[in-house]
Amino acid sequence: MTTPCIICVAITGSVPTKADNPAVPTSVSEQIESTHEAFEAGATIMHAHVRNEDETPSSDPEKFAQLKEGIEKHCPGMIIQFSTGGRSGAGKTRGGMLPLGPDMASLSVGSNNFPTRVYENPPDLVAWLASEMKAHDIKPEIEAFDLSHIFRAAAMHQAGEIAETPYVQFVMGVKNAMPVDREVFDFYIHTVKRLFGEDTLWCAAGIGPNQIVLNDWAISAGGHARTGLEDNIRLDRNTLAPSNAALVKRAVEICEKHERPVATWQQAREMLGLRKVA
Ligand SMILES: [Zn+2]
User: Residue 256 C-alpha to ligand 1 middle, in angstroms?
Assistant: First the structure.
């Protein structure tokens, strides 16, 4: 039996603006509408950052609360994943929304370079974010920007700092971090299985034109896929993606090509060990 593929849509991120692509949802109401379309197209996890009125990144828990309420109302069953990534704030403000208890949250466990700066994840902050996730029954998604991050996650898992089995995401194609490299990708899979067990779930995200490459690699190799305007604003070199849903449809087509069924939200929740929703 072929494992259903979980599609995550990263709707907004903290970098692209409407000047880059008018379809990037930046207000909470736009985010809810864009997520709803993506949910109907086949996405079952929504990964979210929030923005201020001027489109700059925000870490305001009130905005996250409004977003969560809207998603629960308009996309019942969809898995809500908040970003605790570094662009939205410094230090503990990055986890200020965790008491809202989303299903999942992203967790970066090590530092690396980003295109124009250091992506700083000091050990004490990582430990605090992980402890908050555990306290609020939130499943972390480990963002692996580097091989060492997979090993750090395994050490945290062994130490009981990460509950249950983690969900590891390989991020490739961020300038100055890990490029898109098939041998490293295969070694990532091998390493995750070696450290966490053969059945551990993993997913992958590619940046810019590499989004479709990583979707194809992950879906054909039995992993799960992330798409969305956060990582890529184009359908091809000359065409802006008209919506998050359009990128989700593209991932669904890749699933069809590789004969992978697309996971329903019920299947995705069960596979990830998340709570059931009525
Ligand atoms: Zn993000």
Answer: 26
